[in-house]
Amino acid sequence: MSDELERRSRLLGIKLRALVRDHIGSDPDGEIFPFGLGAALVTSDATFVLVEGDASKALGPSLSWALQHSDAPLHVLADRDTGVLARRAENFHHPISIWHIADRVLLPAVVEPFTVQVEPLSSHLAFIGLIAQAGADVVIEHGVVTGEVQGLEICRVVDDAYTGESRLEVGMGAHDREAFAMIHGSLPTEKALRNVIDAVSVHRSVGADPHPLNTFGAERLMRARVIANPQSVGFVHAEAAEPPVQRMNLKDAVPCVALAVGAQGQRLVVTFAHGIDLDVVPFALDAWQRLEPTALPAVVLRDQDVVKSIERLAHNAITSVQIIAFRAG
User: Per the domain annotation, does 211 fall within a domain?
Assistant: First the structure.
């Protein structure tokens, strides 16, 4: 650990002990431990985890750490995203309390309800035919109409900031779409789409050489392949579904979701993740509760990403979470 990281860890440990001391009214007798997202304190009857900064993906890592160190109740302290953490904490057997930090006071986090489903504008839905005819997959999440090629977004319907007119923009992300319009603005939209689809498809195919175009949205590429060949993971059918929270940055690795039918006719809410993601189980349970709580939750991961910590979290869930290994090819 570098001197800077060691100093940060020590300061966060001091902060955590002070918050707990002020909350319980006496100095806690436990030991401070380094924790990747902040600091941890283990006492004889509780585990406290302080999350510094973005806490939206902190429940899985916090619970995973706690289960390895103690059977005592877990208390997660954060000053952001505590409503979502409180909602997701209800999906586990292990006793978990989420606390919102307000200055030096710990307040019980209030469960944040799921966002209301947003229907796309009719002017946006009007572009679905064009997207499909060009050869892209139409994906609608949180009211946003997009076109994907093997899980990579290559176009999006937007409203002009000045005129309010709806239009289809080609490109991956706002800056890419703007640059594309500046260079290829004279191309008919369908032709522009087809050109991009041809260029992207080469790099998103099985066995393609490493390229920036097959590193973005790897989890969505996995979902696209399962939708195209559901039998590869034992499904009869699969279709893209809306995640419990909106993806804000196309370049960030964020799990994606599908609704599927298993070989025995069972309904499944499936979450796809790429890389070792300790928060995938809380995310998957969140998606399951929002989309179809009468179905079964499942997680699709690459073989190398199925680690004991994720399996432990799945076993601790209030309902059985199936972990399915994905093999490309």
Answer: no
Among 108, 134, 158, residue at a domain's last position: 108
Quote the tokens at residue 298: 């499942």
| Per-residue pLDDT tens over the stretch 140-171 | 999 999 999 999 999 999 998 889 999 998 88
pLDDT in tens, 185-232: 767 678 888 988 998 998 898 888 888 888 889 999 999 999 999 999
* Strand bridging mode 256-262 / 267-272: antiparallel
301 and 236 fall within a common domain = yes
**Cα–Cα distance for residue pair 133/314, rounded to 1 Å:** 41
- pLDDT given for residue 241 in this prediction: 97
Q: Coil, strand, or helix at residue 235? A: strand
Q: What share of the chain is helix, strand, coil (3-state, %, to 5)?
A: 35, 25, 35
Say if residues 253 and 274 touch (Cβ distance below 8 Å): yes
Q: Quick check: 139 and 157 in contact, CB under 8 A?
A: no
Q: Residue 126, class by beta-carbon neighbours within 10 Å (0-12 exposed, 13-18 middle, 19+ buried)?
A: middle
Per the CB < 8 A criterion, the answer to whether 208 and 228 are in contact is: no
Total-model pTM: 0.93
**CATH number of the domain where residue 319 is located:** 3.40.1350.10
Query: What residues contact 186, with CB distance under 8 A and at least 6 apart?
Result: none
